[in-house]
Specification:
By secondary structure, the protein is of the alpha/beta class. Helix 5 packs parallel to helix 7 (167-180) and helix 6 packs parallel to helix 8. A 5-stranded parallel β-sheet has the order 2-3-4-1-5, with helices on both faces. It has 3 domains: 11-126, Rossmann fold, CATH 3.40.50.300; 134-182, no CATH class; 199-331, Zinc Finger, Delta Prime, domain 3 (Up-down Bundle), CATH 1.20.272. The chain has helices spanning 19-36, 52-60, 81-92, 111-119, 134-146, 153-163, 167-180, 188-194, 199-211, 215-228, 233-251, 259-266, 272-283, 287-304, 316-331, and strands at residues 11-15, 41-46, 69-74, 98-104, 123-126.
Length: 336
Amino acid sequence: MAKASAQPARVTIAIGNEPLFIERTVRAVAKAATKDDPQAQRFDIAAGDANGGLAIREACAPTLFGDTSVVIVSGIDSCSDEVDAALREVVTDFPDHVWLIVTHPGGVKGKNLLDALKKAGAEQVDCVAPKKGKDTLEFLSREFASHKRTITRDGMDALYEALGNDIRMLSAASSQLSSDVVNEPITRDDVAAYFEGVAEVSGFAIADAVWDRRSVDALRMLRQAMLNSDSVAVPTVSAMAMGLRQVVRVAGMPPGASEFDIAKEAGVPPWKVKTLRRQWSGWSGDQRRLAAAAVALADADGAAKGGIAQGSSLDPEQKLLELERLVMLTSARKSE
């Protein structure tokens, strides 16, 4: 996300598809408006609304007491002709008491209106979700910096592995860790300790044990996760499926591929490549069983989410029993 200026513009375009960044942009503008006028009124208008044009004109019209108006018009890529006309009118002779924020998901739709707003002096704020890998880790580093904290690279990698590309969850986790962890910098051990027992994080640890074929560790961690959470099945199966995809991607890379190329192909941080290579080496001579594991995972995914065929839904205990069976059978090594 590109940083907005210290003082937001009176007309702001939040362009992109990441809700967290859009919310932050709106919040920054609203904060600036209420600093000038604590009684500022907020108006949320959908650009596709049939009465959107009228709503914009009314929200931007002068009031008897000169109250400030914060007007948020969302989705101008699909606005009606009335909304288009109303926005152009407002920015042509912009009212002193109005702060205007418009949102656009990106793309070419509504480009003429965007150009008109920018020509009128609107500030554009990039709200595009960061790409997987390096961009997300850079975002995470900035999040900790915003809390005046630092985190080690392997700590960031652990957090990224646990929570994936969910920007909102990563932001919340950085805030929680910054608040609750005393030592500086925050480390991988801090991340692991903080999230111990969280179903989604446990799922990745279980998945690593499964694809390492450490059946005893996998089953032990699974049962520990079951004690700490009622929602184990879906995140564990999802983590196992992700682990399988990553192992298969590594298997398909040429022998001389660099760690950077493998990390990019598998969508993992570079430190994870060594783990994936080790896992693949344990399965490369047992590919039929790996294929069978993929089928079992597909069946387990349906069972964990309630069953595929009508009347096939499982109760919570049955789901956990099936999950235990899946973990044991998948992680076990072939008999000698």
